Amino acid sequence: MVSRWTQQLLDEATALMSAHRYRSALERLLVVFDVYPDLPEARQLASALIYAGARTTSEAAPDEQLGTRQLFDTRLNAVFCACEAPGCGVSWVSAHHLLDGHRGGAMISNPMGGCCEDCGVTLCKRHARSAGHGLDCPRCGRQLDHAPAPNGRRQSAQTERLNKRLVHVIVLVEGKKPPSAEFMTGLCESVMPDVFEGSPRITGNHYRKFTADEGRTEAVFHAGAMESAYLTDDYDLRIYPGKQAGRRGRRWVIAKVFENRPKHIDPEHPSAGP
Ligand SMILES: [Zn+2]
Ligand SMILES: [Zn+2]
């Protein structure tokens, strides 16, 4: 049984989706995921929303379309199918939830990928074998299920979001020079677009040479030096190391500082949450 608070958000999302207001609909669902990350009703609706939103962008106003910033939100990982070919990072949302109850015989035109029921492997279009009727399994030759259940995306370029308010983001880059404004903006856009939703403090700094743990130690030290309370239970400190693309790309490490209490609460079940 979903609570009334949850049902209202699901209903709003459904209505917004019918009006092609995809981004607003997704915002409602993300509030539900903040409190109930595994709720099947929300997953089903998110799946239908992304499937529709990605295919009928032209019907939505530009500020209601779903782009990479929305789609790579880690809270949506579970609704995505992900290719299991080694090194492949392709993920997509299948028509699985749209076809619930009336599967079998449903034709999916131009599927993004599929799943082999014999081998139990999910593959994108490029790693499957294309045949006249769609896609076949490259291992056993069986026709793939073109609307498989999501196997879950394991990787996203974006850092994790929590059901907690983001108050400060500290970026450390390795080297002699501090990060440029351009670098900081690019990093926020691709890796932590949640900074554009709230208004966290943003600090950029540099560190000559990271130690063996990819700069994690330096990031924690830096956060504690800026505000000693960040290392207490009042805050939740998360560290994400990474690297700029290319051979000469600089290494960076991000410290996301969250307030250590829930941002969204279901008033009927105040203690519910991940
Ligand atoms: Zn197979
Ligand atoms: Zn692939």
Keywords:
two-stranded antiparallel ribbon; 21% strand; binds zinc ion; Translation Initiation Factor IF3; four-stranded mixed beta sheet; 274 residues; alpha+beta
Reading off the top of the CATH hierarchy, the class of the largest domain is best stated as Alpha Beta
Q: What profile does the largest beta sheet have? A: 4 strands, mixed
Which term fits the overall shape?
A: globular
CATH architecture of the largest domain: 2-Layer Sandwich
- The unreliable regions are none
Q: Structural class, please? A: alpha+beta
> What is the ordering of alpha helices and beta strands?
HHHHEEEEEEEHEHEE
Name the ligand types: zinc ion
Q: Kindly, what is the distance between the CA atoms of the first and last residues, rounded to a whole number of angstroms?
A: 18 Å
DSSP strand content: 15-25%
The mean pLDDT is 91
Q: What share of residues is helical?
A: 25-40%
Instruction: Count structural domains.
Output: 3
Number of strands: 10
Radius of gyration: 21 Å
CATH topology of the largest domain: Translation Initiation Factor IF3
Order of strands side by side in the largest beta sheet? 8-7-10-9
What is the tally of helical segments?
Answer: 6
